[in-house]
Amino acid sequence: MKTKIFNLSRLETSLILIHATRFSVEIVNLKMHSERTIAVKLKGTEKDINELINFIDECNSE
Q1: Phi and psi (nearest 5°) for 7?
Q2: How many beta carbons lie within 10 A of that of residue 19, not counting itself?
């Protein structure tokens, strides 16, 4: 298992909260990074975390 930290928008963070269990990823910590971004610490396999982030990126592009 790996732990990664991402600085995400509120929308991206909301999508992660909704879809994390679908990708077998655990949300370890959320912390306001600035007015517009939230630091999200995720725990899971490299593959699962990457799949979740790719899914979030696809949602943002639509």
Answers
A1: -100, 115
A2: 14
Helix (H, G, I), strand (E, B) or coil at 40: strand
- Provide Rg for the chain, Cα atoms: 11
pLDDT value at residue 35: 83
This prediction has a pTM of 0.84
Query: Tokens at residue 59, please?
Result: 């949602």
Give the 3-state DSSP-derived string for the chain, with helices as H, strands as E and coil as C. Answer: CEEEEEEECHHHHHHHHHHCHHHCCEEEEEEECCCCCEEEEEEECHHHHHHHHHHHHHHHHC
